[in-house]
Structures are given as C-alpha cells and as structure tokens.
Amino acid sequence: MSFDLDSRIRKVPDHPKPGILFYDITSILMDPAALEYCVTELVRPFRDEPVSGIAAIESRGFLFGAPIALRLGVPLMLVRKAGKLPGKTVSASYELEYGTDSVEMHVSDLEGDGPVLIVDDLVATGGTAEATAALIERAGRSVAGIACVVGLPFLPYAERLKKHRVHTLITYESE
After folding, report:
1. Is 10 a catalytic residue?
2. Residue 55: beta bridge partners?
3. I want to staple 24 with a disulfide (CB 3.0 to 4.6 A). Which of 10, 52, 69, 148 is the partner?
C-alpha cells in the first residue's frame, strides 16, 4: 500500500529544546486515512504470528496499541512511567541522556504465555522499548517485535534493540 506518511507528520523545530526537531504524530490522529494506514501497516508483519498481547508504551503508544490489539484480538497491556499504575507492578530502568527513568507494568498483565508485541509512536534511542522488553522477558514471555510509526536511526536504537525485530513505517535519517 502506497501512502505519503511523511506529509502527515508535523515537524516542529526546537521542541522540546533548541536544536531538536520533534516529529509530531498528533497530525496523523487528525487524519482518519493516515491513522488507518498506520494501524494496518503496523499490524501487517505480525498478523500471522502468534502474538498474545500488545504492550503499548505511554502515552502515544496507547493510541496505536489499542486498535492493533483489537485487530489482532489480543489484550492491551499498558507500559507507564513509574507510579502511574495502581496495584502490584514490576519496573525496569533505562538510561537517558542525563540520568535514568523507569517504566512499569502490572504484574497481572504479564501472566500467561506467548509473545508480546511492543508498540510505540516513535523509537529514538530505544531505551523505553528495551526496558519494556526486559519486563516482558523477566516475566518469562518473549517479545514478538517492536512496532513504531517513526524510527530515528541516527540515534542508537538499532544497536540497543538488535536482538529484537523492529518494524517502523517511516524513518528520518538526521535531525
């Protein structure tokens, strides 16, 4: 399927700080055809695989993860920043440019078996996806892959996520 996704992604210079070009996917959400394209194409490589759950990363990953979970007929598991989920959680930390951060998932969401597909809007350094994969694997499950609308290969995600299959719909080679 041919679709001009690049024209649907707003580029915002100097956000959130000077020198950063922000790839804003909210413009995709305003265009039903673009959203349909993204959901269809993020599902395509995993449609015939034994995916048993979607781990959607806060917050824009939720927007793509929910329809993907519906299309695949599997549960949606939320991956959130520390302290946002009620109940018993497990967490994994990851390195940021200056410091660390962590993500959490409900312990009960990770029960069961079968591969889990990680979904987010964008993959840059790969830290959040790597931490999410660690949570899934520590629970004894496998990672079916990582599916994101945008990939920024000029940042080190490929090296960081090399043991996982990463599927992106569009890549930008430099800032």
Report:
1. no
2. 77, 118
3. 10
